[in-house]
Automatic annotation (TrEMBL):
Pfam families: MgtC. It is a multi-pass membrane protein. PANTHER family: PROTEIN MGTC (PTHR33778:SF3). Belongs to the MgtC/SapB family. Its main location: membrane. The keyword Zinc does not apply. Keywords: Cell inner membrane, Cell membrane, Membrane, Transmembrane, Transmembrane helix. This is Protein MgtC. One of its GO terms (cellular component) is plasma membrane.
Length: 237
């Protein structure tokens, strides 16, 4: 039988050791994620680790180190699609980036184990756990530091209401903002129920001086066709 003819006890034992290492290290990473009730918990991280391990291990046995390198490249790109599934956008906020990054690292741990780099897999696991646990107090401390709005990146927008032709005002609005060193990414017109038009201009700048933006808004309000003008701020993605 082909299975009996191709079976090699040494290769089988090496694969077993690699899978056990990937399983154990993936469990350590996943347990921390499960404890914090993240989207991708214990089982997901373990499956990612042993899956990446087996793909790389199989390539090592079939095509040697060169084949394993090619498979690792596919694992790196393929795990990105899985990570994208745990990233969620809620309004201006994005959740799941850290969980997706952890899955990526679990795949790297599994790939190391599959390539018989067990020591490197253990070392990487230690760094992943350190990043997800030891850095939390530092993150909390940095978030408590008071900052002015000018020091934080955000998406700024200008909202202008007019009863005149929005296409004509659109050019004036863009020119005023460009002159004030606030380049515009996009201006979107929207007709309101009362027959007026609302122009929403999204600025390219992610960090601005509020006093300068207020001055530009004041000049926009003095345009004869403008009913009202204001600016908005939302957290940068």
């Amino acid at each position: 039988m082909p299975f009996i003819e191709s079976f090699n006890a040494g290769d089988f034992f090496a694969t077993l050791v690699s899978l056990l290492a990937a399983f154990g290290l993936g469990t350590l990473i996943g347990a921390e994620r499960q404890y914090r009730q993240r989207t991708a918990g214990l089982r997901t991280n373990v499956l990612v680790a042993i899956g990446a391990c087996q793909f790389v291990d199989m390539a090592m046995h079939l095509a040697g180190p060169d084949g394993a390198v090619r498979v690792v490249a596919y694992v790196v790109s393929g795990i990105g699609f899985l990570g994208a599934g745990v990233i969620m956008k809620e309004g201006a906020n994005i959740r799941g980036l850290n969980t997706a990054a952890t899955l990526w690292c679990s795949a790297a741990v599994g790939a190391c184990a599959g390539a018989d780099l067990i020591a490197q897999a253990v070392l990487l696991t230690a760094f992943v756990l350190a990043g997800n646990t030891m850095l939390r107090p530092l993150v909390s401390a940095l978030e408590r530091i008071p900052r002015s709005e000018e020091e934080t990146e955000a998406t700024y927008g200008v909202i202008v209401v007019t009863r005149a032709d929005p296409a004509e005002l659109r050019g004036k609005l863009a020119a005023l903002l460009e002159k004030a060193q606030f380049p515009v990414d996009v201006i979107e017109p929207d007709e309101r129920a009362d027959g007026s038009f609302e122009l929403r201009a999204t600025l390219v700048n992610t960090s601005v001086r509020i006093s300068e933006l207020d001055a530009v808004i004041s000049r926009i309000r003095h345009l004869p066709e403008v009913v009202s003008a204001t600016w908005t701020r939302s957290a940068a993605d």
